[in-house]
């Protein structure tokens, strides 16, 4: 938080053990705590929504089914007929990130998607799953993808390293994109909140001016709501695209 | 789109942070890169466990549950549609049957009418024919009677003529006192001759 005339925009990303000694011993910070809250919230949404199991759904059930249909269509349309096998994985990725992004917008909540370690782990998970799927569906033929079809053979020494590099850069771009978006948004929110506090400390005139950053923060929160769902969608759709390449023959 | 600029903004911030504060100091500035903090790796391990639990619960229980509800709904709707389709087919068949029955009935009625009319016509024709026949026989009989009457009349003509001629002669001759000078046979011969002459 703002201390005096400086704004500590990064303090919100610090990890602290929860439950004192227990958290310290288990390395359990507020980041896993909010992951836990996120999955409990998503599962509660699904289970409470689907509890009536009605033929004509109510509002909550319709919302749960909408989420299911949205990801199911994304998985099966992007990946192809093998998409059904990867649907739970894509569903888990999308709702894990979405819940993390949206939880972070609630005051005093921690945004675990703003940690590069978390987003990189997710990206590496996607990367490994797509590599394993490649080997499962294509075997050794998978390596032929590093030489684009129809390209002249004498360009191979140039093309193959480029292709390998672009392949290896996937988890990097995937993780940095999500991490950077979430971190930038939260830094901006914190900075404008800090402006409000600083202006409020300048007396009566400053108190009036302090309204402006609050208005900006309201707009930023709306933008973050959009970015949160968009980044989850981008992560999930890129996962689907990588998996399609993995299962394509 | 808003994203690319933001994608640039954050790495730029990181780069600035990296460049501005060399050495150990930037790690303190960016908690995400403070790898000395055991909690940083701790969250990855915990995150892996939590995500695995999330995935297992989703794939084993939550998502099949939703799929079951959706499949049940789809089957229910398709079943209802099937029932409706069958009912419509039944109704169509019933309408067809009704139409055919009406058509048949109309055709039968028309045939009956035709038959009755035909019969009536035939009866009328037969009656006419019989009537004509009877009339013809009546006419033939009448003609025959006429012919016989005529023949009879013609046959009795000489006698009558002879009688008439004799009585005429007697009436003419009696006043003169000549009795029975002309015999009956003579009169008859003369009448016969006269008739033959008039006929011939």
Automatic annotation (TrEMBL), chain A:
Its main location: membrane. InterPro entries: ATP_synth_F0_asu, ATP_synth_F0_asu_AS, ATP_synth_F0_asu_bact/mt, F0_ATP_A_sf. Keywords: ATP synthesis, Cell membrane, CF(0), Hydrogen ion transport, Ion transport, Membrane, Transmembrane, Transmembrane helix, Transport. It is found in: Cell membrane; Membrane. The keyword Transmembrane helix applies. It comes from the Bacteria. The chain crosses the membrane at residues 33-50, 84-104, 116-135, 155-179, 191-216, 222-243. The keyword Cell membrane applies. Pfam families: ATP-synt_A. It is a multi-pass membrane protein. Key component of the proton channel; it plays a direct role in the translocation of protons across the membrane. Belongs to the ATPase A chain family. This is ATP synthase subunit a. It comes from Asaia siamensis. The lineage of its organism: Bacteria, Pseudomonadati, Pseudomonadota, Alphaproteobacteria, Acetobacterales. The gene is atpB.
Automatic annotation (TrEMBL), chain B:
It is a single-pass membrane protein. InterPro entries: ATP_synth_b/b'su_bac/chlpt (IPR002146), ATP_synthase_B_chain (IPR050059). It is found in: Cell membrane; Endomembrane system. Keywords: ATP synthesis, Cell membrane, CF(0), Coiled coil, Hydrogen ion transport, Ion transport, Membrane, Signal, Transmembrane, Transmembrane helix, Transport. Pfam families: ATP-synt_B (PF00430). Residues 81-108 form a coiled coil. The chain crosses the membrane at residues 37-58. Residues 1-27 form the signal peptide. Belongs to the ATPase B chain family. PANTHER family: ATP SYNTHASE SUBUNIT B, ATP SYNTHASE SUBUNIT B', CHLOROPLASTIC. Component of the F(0) channel, it forms part of the peripheral stalk, linking F(1) to F(0). The b'-subunit is a diverged and duplicated form of b found in plants and photosynthetic bacteria. F-type ATPases have 2 components, F(1) - the catalytic core - and F(0) - the membrane proton channel. F(1) has five subunits: alpha(3), beta(3), gamma(1), delta(1), epsilon(1). F(0) has three main subunits: a(1), b(2) and c(10-14). The alpha and beta chains form an alternating ring which encloses part of the gamma chain. F(1) is attached to F(0) by a central stalk formed by the gamma and epsilon chains, while a peripheral stalk is formed by the delta and b chains. This is ATP synthase subunit b. The lineage of its organism: Bacteria, Pseudomonadati, Pseudomonadota, Alphaproteobacteria, Acetobacterales. The gene is atpF2.
């Amino acid at each position: 938080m703002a201390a005096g005339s400086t704004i500590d925009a990064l303090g919100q990303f610090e990890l602290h053990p929860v439950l004192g000694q227990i958290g310290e011993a288990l390395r359990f910070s507020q980041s896993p705590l909010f992951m836990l809250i996120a999955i409990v919230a998503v599962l509660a949404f699904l289970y409470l929504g689907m509890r009536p199991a009605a033929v004509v759904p109510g509002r909550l059930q319709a919302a749960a089914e909408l989420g299911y249909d949205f990801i199911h269509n994304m998985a099966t349309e992007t990946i192809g007929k093998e998409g059904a096998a990867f649907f739970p994985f894509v569903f888990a990725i999308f709702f894990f990130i979405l819940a993390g992004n949206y939880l972070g917008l609630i005051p005093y909540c921690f945004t675990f998607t703003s940690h590069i370690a978390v987003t990189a782990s997710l990206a590496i998970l996607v990367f490994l799953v797509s590599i394993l799927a490649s080997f499962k569906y294509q075997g050794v033929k998978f390596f032929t993808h590093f030489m684009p079809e129809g390209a002249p053979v004498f360009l191979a020494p140039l093309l193959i390293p480029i292709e390998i590099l672009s392949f290896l850069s996937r988890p990097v771009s995937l993780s940095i994109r999500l991490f950077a978006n979430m971190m930038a948004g939260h830094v901006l929110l914190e900075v404008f909140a800090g402006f409000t506090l600083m202006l409020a400390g300048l007396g009566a005139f400053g108190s009036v001016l302090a309204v402006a950053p609050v208005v900006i923060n309201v707009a930023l929160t709306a933008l973050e709501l959009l970015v949160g769902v968009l980044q989850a969608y981008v992560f999930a759709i890129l996962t689907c695209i990588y998996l399609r390449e993995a299962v394509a023959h | 789109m808003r994203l690319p600029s933001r994608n640039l903004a954050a790495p730029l911030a990181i780069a600035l942070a990296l460049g501005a504060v060399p050495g150990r100091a930037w790690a303190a500035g960016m908690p995400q890169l403070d790898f000395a903090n055991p909690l940083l790796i701790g969250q990855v391990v915990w995150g892996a466990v939590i995500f695995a639990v999330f995935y297992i619960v989703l794939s084993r229980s939550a998502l099949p549950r939703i799929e079951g509800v959706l499949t049940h709904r789809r089957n229910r709707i398709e079943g209802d549609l099937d029932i409706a389709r069958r009912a419509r087919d039944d109704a169509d068949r019933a309408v067809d049957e009704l139409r055919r029955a009406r058509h048949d009935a109309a055709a039968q009625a028309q045939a009956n009418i035709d038959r009755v009319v035909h019969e009536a016509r035939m009866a009328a024709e037969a009656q006419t024919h019989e009537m004509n026949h009877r009339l013809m026989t009546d006419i033939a009989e009448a003609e025959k009677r006429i012919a016989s009457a005529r023949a009879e009349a013609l046959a009795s003509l000489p006698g009558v003529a002879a009688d008439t001629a004799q009585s005429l002669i007697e009436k003419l001759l009696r006043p003169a006192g000549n009795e029975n000078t002309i015999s009956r046979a003579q009169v008859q011969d003369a009448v016969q001759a006269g008739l033959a002459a008039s006929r011939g």
